[in-house]
Description:
Blueprint: E1 3-11, E2 26-35, E3 40-48, H1 58-64, H2 68-72, H3 77-87, E4 95-97, H4 101-113, E5 123-125, H5 126-133, H6 142-149, H7 160-176
Helix pairs in contact: 5-7, 6-7
Amino acid sequence: MNLLNVIDVEATCWPGNPPPGQTNEIIEIGLCVVDLDSRSRIEKHQIMVRPQRSTVSAFCTELTGHTQADVEAGMSFTAACRLLADEHDGWNRPWASWGDYDRNQFRRQTRDSRAPYPFSDEHTNAKRVFTEALALPRRPGMAGALKTAGLPLEGRHHNGADDAWNIAALVLHLVARDAWPTSGADAIVDA
Length: 191
């Protein structure tokens, strides 16, 4: 099987700058495993993460649906990184996200927390591939891209697991158009 991990994270957020002493931290990691050979989404996971230096604001709850109680029941960020690396072959499997936010957030948060970075260097910015494949003038958000592709938005937007599932549908749309980069020399590596 030719597997790809599609990742989408939700993080603590506020309508403006973070309150004093707080910082954006991952509170949910959505993961959809895609079998590129069979052109199917084969797994969907939601990993709730307990923030250490921030709390879930009312704005964040309205956006994501996650409450402070939800994230307090989650695992530590370090444990979540280990889970991604060990149970989802994160260090070896290529991965994708919609844009660079997720990759940058993981890089920053693993550096700050000294948690192991849970992914390979083979990251594809699916938003960039979609924009280039369809010759769009601007890079659309995920919901806009689904409309452009004629695909439904499944689940709740800004829920990491649902968004990863929807991004995976966009990846498969690109695979069907022969527009998804293959592993190796043709892959887009955003290291």
